[in-house]
């Protein structure tokens, strides 16, 4: 049983321009399940240096960092771990007696998912998108040894430098079908105006072996549904958001929950679709 909140309770938090509830629900559910004397709360801020100063001064154990703070926070902390250095972006801060270390658990989650799903580094890929998460994916691919890939982005100011940085081709438009790994890191398929848009045309899906969509809301995007209907292996954004949060949880607490605890916490925080995605259902 989790101890009642008291003076020894460790606080973890998140900083975001638009705080949500899912992270708090997942972490607090695990604290309760595992009997850990922690509490998690989400915040926003208009003063990032003061907020990070508070993390240090109040001995807040961990801090998740969301947009638009992932790069701006780097000069305010003491150390950068390899996962954050690979993409010059921090989404997790761990406080060890006033020393703040930055990690990027998005990078870790993407890397681990590609390994877990048995995706060979010899697999040719198309990555569609060039924003911050695209950078995490591209860095993870390069770190695993993927050498044959195309970054597709209509914006040459972000797409071309991203491809150059990680040693891939860049194209403003989709090439011919044939890539065996398709990765969507755009809003296509996300809840909202693009919710019914396929991230890749059907010809690309028929030709691929693996479809990876980082969009998590909804988990079953048109791209993921079409790939499953075609009998393709899929990796969903639901898996990414949960596994990156579990990595944060382990960094903060030193405890790595088992599969049953993760599923129960995911169900409480995100609902049945994301919980099912973790098991490939």
Q: What sort of overall outline do the alpha carbons produce when their principal axes are compared?
A: globular
Mean pLDDT: 94
Helix amount: 40-55%
CATH superfamily of the largest domain: Leucine Dehydrogenase, chain A, domain 1
Query: Mind describing the biggest β-sheet?
Result: 6 strands, mixed
Oligomer class: single chain
> Would you identify the regions where 5 or more consecutive residues have pLDDT less than 50?
none
CATH architecture call of the largest domain: 3-Layer(aba) Sandwich
CATH topology of the largest domain: Rossmann fold
Describe the structure.
This protein has 281 residues and is an alpha/beta fold. The protein has two domains: 10-103 and 242-278, Leucine Dehydrogenase, chain A, domain 1 (Rossmann fold); 108-235, Rossmann fold, CATH 3.40.50. The chain contains eleven helices and twelve strands. The protein has helices at 22-34, 48-57, 82-85, 105-116, 132-144, 156-166, 202-207, 222-229, 237-253, 259-270, 272-278, and strands at 10-15, 38-43, 62-65, 79-80, 92-96, 99-103, 125-128, 149-152, 169-171, 181-184, 210-213, 233-235. The strands form two sheets. It has a six-stranded mixed sheet. A six-stranded parallel sheet has the order 9-8-7-10-11-12, with helices on both faces. Strand 7, helix 5 and strand 8 (149-152) form a beta-alpha-beta unit. Helix 10 runs antiparallel to helix 11 (272-278). The longest helix is centred in the last third of the chain and has 17 residues, at 237-253.
């Amino acid at each position: 049983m989790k101890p009642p909140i008291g003076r020894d309770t460790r606080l973890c938090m998140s900083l975001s321009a638009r705080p949500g509830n899912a992270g708090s629900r997942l972490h607090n559910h695990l604290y309760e399940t595992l009997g850990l004397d922690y509490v998690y709360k989400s915040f926003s801020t208009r003063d990032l240096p003061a907020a990070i100063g508070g993390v240090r001064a109040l001995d807040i154990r961990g801090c998740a960092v969301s947009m638009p703070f992932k790069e701006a926070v780097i000069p305010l902390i003491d150390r950068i771990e390899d996962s954050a250095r690979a993409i010059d972006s921090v989404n997790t801060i761990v406080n060890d007696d006033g020393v703040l270390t930055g990690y990027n658990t998005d990078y870790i989650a993407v890397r681990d998912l590609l390994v877990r799903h048995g995706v060979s580094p010899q697999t040719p890929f198309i990555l569609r998108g060039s924003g911050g998460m695209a950078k995490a994916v591209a860095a993870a691919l390069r770190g695993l040894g993927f050498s044959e890939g195309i970054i597709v982005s209509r914006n040459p100011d972000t797409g071309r430098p991203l491809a150059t940085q990680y040693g891939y081709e860049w194209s403003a438009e989709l090439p011919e079908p044939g890539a065996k790994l398709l990765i969507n890191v755009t809003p296509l398929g996300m809840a909202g105006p693009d919710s019914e848009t396929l991230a890749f045309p059907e010809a690309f899906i028929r030709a691929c072996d693996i479809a990876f969509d980082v969009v998590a809301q909804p988990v079953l995007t048109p791209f993921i549904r079409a790939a499953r209907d075609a009998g393709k292996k899929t990796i969903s954004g639901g898996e990414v958001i949960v596994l990156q949060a579990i990595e944060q949880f382990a960094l903060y607490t030193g405890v790595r929950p088992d599969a049953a605890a993760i599923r129960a916490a995911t169900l409480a925080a995100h609902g049945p679709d994301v919980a099912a995605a973790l098991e490939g259902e």
